[in-house]
Amino acid sequence: MTPNYNVFCYLLITSFAQSATMDATQQQQKALLDEANQQRNALQKSPSFLVPLLPPVATDSHPAPCFTLRTIQFENARSLSPSTQSALKAAYLYRCLTLIDIQQLVRDITNTYIEKGYVTSQAYLPAQDIRQGTLRIAVMEGLTESVEIEGQPLRMVNMVFPNLTGQVLNLRDIEQGLEQLNRLASARYTIDIQPGMHPGYSRVLIRRQVDGLPGKINFSVDNSGQKSPPKPKCRSDWSSIRL
């Protein structure tokens, strides 16, 4: 699989059967996906320790069909509190939303996960018909498949990173363990997050840092959003981030 340096790449699939032709809707969807993929190079250049948020969706001056939503349902968003979910929905309910507006809501949800440390989780749209005023947004909450520390036995993993395997991956938890490890060990270590053996899972590799090189976090994300639970269709790396 060829890496393409894009933290998040996902397919937006939904049905809009209104006055606009299907060709026009498909062209709009393609334009949104192209715009999202243009962020790949910017992520590499970020000097910040924090994971960069996805930028706002580009607006379109051309007329587009819109749909008034009375209900927005989040599926599998277990790591977001009810109050957080309500706040995200509030700005979009009872408005006539275009495809771009809905795409922005999906991006807002993903950014909320990133801000809370869930850097391998993302929202996506399953196929649906929203003409009745109900929108469903699903979330793939990325899980931790395994944790390994380069050059250290399993008992060190269990001591420094307890109970992470099988849980929703949160960068904050890994950072806390890394700080403890760097205090205990003579060497310095960095975080490397790689795709796991199963869709939606990631391997956390704590690598021994080579002397003279700055710490960094590498992300290889394989959760591409699509109408079914995301499958590994793209690999993305983000590096050059100092710990």
UniProtKB/TrEMBL annotation:
Residues in the signal sequence: 1-19
UniProtKB keywords: Plasmid, Signal
Domain Polypeptide-transport-associated ShlB-type: 67-142
Molecular function as annotated in GO: protein transmembrane transporter activity
UniProt-listed GO biological process terms: protein secretion by the type V secretion system
Superkingdom of source: Bacteria
Domain ShlB POTRA: 146-195
PANTHER family in the cross-refs: OUTER MEMBRANE TRANSPORTER CDIB, SLR1661 PROTEIN
Name this protein carries in UniProt: Hemolysin transporter protein ShlB
